[in-house]
Amino acid sequence: MKTKAENRTEESESSSISLDEYEKELRLLQIELVKLQKHFLCCSDRILVVFEGRDASGKDGTIKRIVEHLSPRETRVVALGKPSDRDRGSWYFQRYAAELPAAGEFTLFNRSWYNRAGVEHVMGFCSNEEHEEFFLSVPEFEEMLVRSGIRLIKYYLDITKDEQKRRIESRRRDPLKQWKVSSALVAINALLLKRTKLAGIRASSPSVSSSDVTAPMAG
User: Fold this and answer.
1) What distances in angstroms separate CA 115 from CA 51, 52, 86, 100, one per listed residue?
2) Global confidence as pTM
3) In terms of CATH architecture, what is 23-212?
């Protein structure tokens, strides 16, 4: 009987395409994106695309290929850094609201307000009360964006833990990509690994109570 990992590998291999096929398909899709942007401009649409996902899941590369041939005047990529003291003392969504698209603008968020649902909570950057408040507020915030005329599209990029580990190790060895591996990233993944192991212990032993283990971050 085959394991889940073996089945996933076989599915990946059967669905893979050659580099030439990939390049041809990519070009066709990028041409369609250019046409789509012209439509956005004609209609004065406000497009917001949010990318979330596991570390090393391909957010940077995906965004790079999307914007590669789009008009830079009407395209923006937003990748906000660590919040400042002023940010921490403001309405949580305020710094994201400042980056929302204007009419005819195509804006892509490389990570977003969903940091609070994952990284911030796992690393202790927000309290349990702030974490719970986020889940109450985010549907209202996003509904407000849509009512205001913004076309909101959200993507979550996922990879297996083994593939994530392989990519992170590859980045560590590549001097051109080492900047992507921060101490925070290493700490987060170490913490998630520890929690995953604890969850496994809890599943096999009644001596570990549910209060000893919190759920790992989704992305």
Assistant:
1) 11, 9, 17, 17
2) 0.77
3) 3-Layer(aba) Sandwich (3.40)
